[in-house]
Amino acid sequence: MWGLLLALATFAPAVGLGLGEPGASVLGLAPPATTEARGSARGSTPAPQSSLVQPPAGKDNGTSERHVRIRIVKKKVIMKKRKKLTHPRPMVTARPPVTTTPVGVLDLPEEQEPGCPPLGLESLQVSDSQLEASSSQSFGLGPHRGRLNIQSGLEDGDLYDGAWCAEQQDAEPWFQVDARHPTRFSGIITQGRNSVWRYDWVTSYKVQFSNDSQTWWGSRNCSSGVDAVFPANSDPETPVLNLLPEPQVARFIRLLPQTWLQGGAACLRTEILACPVSDPNDLFPKAPALGSSDPLDFRHHNYKAMRKLMKQVNEKCPNITRVYSIGKSHQGLKLYVMEMSDQPGEHELGEPEVRYVAGMHGNEALGRELLLLLMQFLCHEFLRGDPRVTRLLTETRVHLLPSMNPDGYETAFRRGSELVGWAEGRWNHQGIDLNHNFADLNTPLWEAEDDGLVPDTVPNHHLPLPTYYTLPNATVAPETRAVIEWMQRIPFVLSANLHGGMNDFSYLHTNCFEITVELSCDKFPHENELPQEWENNKEALLTYLEQVRMGITGVVRDKDTELGIADAVIAVEGINHDVTTAWGGDYWRLLTPGDYVVTASAEGYHPATRNCRVPFEEGPVPCNFHLTKTPKQRLRELLAAGAKVPPDLRRRLERLRGQKN
């Protein structure tokens, strides 16, 4: 559908997100190189235990030339040819938040909270051209792949690998980000390489800064004054946060891996925490201001805050809203829905029902917040008298389910937007991926089509649930069951899942046309990005709701009684998918502009066919039907009521019997 495609084209693109170790936000001296290769000593002879070593004077790449004495507990350097790993080698765990002075006195830094938002490596606000590195093993492992939570392809060494990786022979690797403006850097989050074939991660690194990419200075340990060495990762996926001992204002930031997993390579994915600062000399072009002028609550809402917000919207707009629950999660959290219509709580004859569902994966928070923002916006604009919103809520019944997986979201929310990782909170509390928990109706339909059984023997719509799916011991999450029952209870016409695979199920099990919308490149964006994400998606969210007015609509009635006929089948010639009428006899059939031959049929009635034209102008085209009962149906109803059979019906039945004989 053209209008539908227009709506889809305006949705923002998509991918994933993550967070790290709560206690890893601190500094320390270089950790003992017990099981890892050290970048500055590759190929050198192993030093004896407890010896004092000195990092080499760096090449002209900004590395510090200051000689630092470090006590090495044990040092082992092993150079091996790269090969596929089946199990990870021993790991180095990020050290606790303690720094050591030269005289052995411990500094215990106060617990810090990351004060600056992400610079935007994960969300792609930082472009590929802003990322550089000392070397790369291949294009697919270039600096443009060094973004937090980026995922690899299935093939090792393809163009879409899961990290930046320095060349094996690069003794002093570095990864550099150009912020393009003076920026206050406050922290770094790192991950290892995402791969099904290899284990690679950095276990410690230094940080340097520059204003011209030529002259560099390092982040210093507050107590000792030497270059700080930050503990990094002990596995490929867990994000680890380190805050700088003192925030630094610069244009460039550079990470210099010091140690990495033995047998692996210097590979990392990262996000930089940074705040913009004003340029007193006005030497750099100002970054465009991002945000929204809508007076909405732009923050992340846990379950308690979400429930409170929905209640506030309901109290502000009681005449057009209703909050109801469709069931509970495995941990007992209610699946709340916000209904918005001029007659909330009531299905009006001829008024289509539309739904948005978000939060199928608990760690994909953007869809959840967009629906909370949408309900606020619709309420606010309706009270303002906005004609577009007024028409939408007058002619449509809108249902918004912001959190299908509240248990998973609570897990992700506790980790925070930058540390939740790609998978934590994705599943429900039972460990079920709701994305793959709906019954497979595609396979039996395709097999029936191949056997020529559709639609005469097997229907092309309203496919029943498979027997295995209805058994008491079937692995079906309570959240999934609640949504299925919701689908069956309300005659939805159009739906969008702000990420998840239930669209096929919805299309084959009910009347509802559904799409999946991938949102953002960041599953759990920082709060300061929510206003811009709302602006990116607001128009598409509204336009998609309006697509329900495209096509034909009408009521199928009994010709004698004028009562609506429930479950009548609406078939469009040339389209192998039918829809059925609701309990009042009303139906909606989404169609693109054109001429169509439409047939309405129901059990006990003669079918009726008519031509219906859908113009390019907005608005559904009325296409009503009056069906006449068959003689057998009339006879059944008369006999059931104990009435006499009228002469005309008796004569018709006799003729039918004669024709049959």
UniProtKB/TrEMBL annotation:
Residues 1-20 form the signal peptide. One of its GO terms (biological process) is proteolysis. Transmembrane segments: none annotated. Residues 114-275 form the F5/8 type C domain. Residues 30-66, 83-103 are annotated as: Disordered. It holds the Pfam family Peptidase_M14. It comes from the Eukaryota. The active site is at E518. SUPFAM superfamilies: Carboxypeptidase regulatory domain-like, Galactose-binding domain-like, Zn-dependent exopeptidases. Residues 42-53 have a biased composition (Polar residues). Residues 88-103 have a biased composition (Low complexity). The keyword Glycoprotein applies. Belongs to the peptidase M14 family. This is Probable carboxypeptidase X1 isoform X2. It comes from Callorhinus ursinus.
